[in-house]
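Running this now, will post back.
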Amino acid sequence: MMEQLEIIRSKRRTIAIEVKKDLRIVVRVPLEMKDNDIQRFVMEKQRWIEKHLQIVKKRNEEKETPFTVEEIHALADAALKDLLQRVAKYAPIVGVTVGRITIRNQRSRWGSCSAKGNLNFNCLSPERAEPFPGVLVAGGMRIAWVQRTISLVKRKWKQDYQEA
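Update: finished.
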């Protein structure tokens, strides 16, 4: 078992075990920790490691086959066309001006926005079976409006504070 471990020593006070997606087992330990103490800890956590190895194996098996680069580009192009129409529809309703719209291939985020009104969307959004729902687009624009408002308030407060 110890030969399968990747041990990372660093300035830390705790020990951590991590099972990676590629089924590697990483153990993070304090710099001064002795090898036999690490080995004892890993043996104590053997059931936890085996359980999480099975969980990761199952997740890996359940994953869909990844898209090719061409398919990702096609999804991003279709998403951009769809989003341009929806943003044009919802921007006046929400009361924002939208900056740049970016489509990315992301693992976990479905969308985000900036205080400048830029919108970022994931071309692999779970809703991509149909065009982007208005809720996702309008929600992104609304958050952008809130962020921009907060930014303006902070700037105004800073100016007022510095003048005083």
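Helices lie at 35-44, 46-62, 69-94, 134-163. More later if anyone needs it.
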